[in-house]
Amino acid sequence: MRLPHPSLARDERGTSLIEFGFLAPFLAVLAMGIIDLSRGLAERFAIQQAVNRGLELVQARPAVAGAEATDLDYGFVVEEVEEAAGDDATVTMTRWLECNGVVAANVTGTCAAGQDSARYLRIRVAKDFQAEFYYATIPMTATGAVRTQ
Known about the structure:
alpha+beta, 4-stranded antiparallel beta sheet, 3 helices, 41% helix, 25% strand
């Protein structure tokens, strides 16, 4: 049996296009994953930077003359962190007192005479990241703490 065009059996033109057609879906999915991953990492870094900014504000705040550490109001820090983290972020601030390394029940109280006292402040930001191609919501959190006294 003779082929009508014997040169077609040896013709290799267009094979690269066919091979690319097999690889194109894989490359597209890979590119979309890299885009989502990079956007997610950028968002995670942004909320961690917001937490770090809040901790810097706590450290930089000058002590009010004659005020006790229990009287200091750090509400402005939450506002600053919320602004830096974005509208849909949830910011929580926790303060606690440790007497001789044990967390005290009353954060605004003082330790007994002779005990070592330390006051701490923790900032936590929670935010949901919506991926473009993954079609899922990924919860993200960033936390930081600093000793205030």
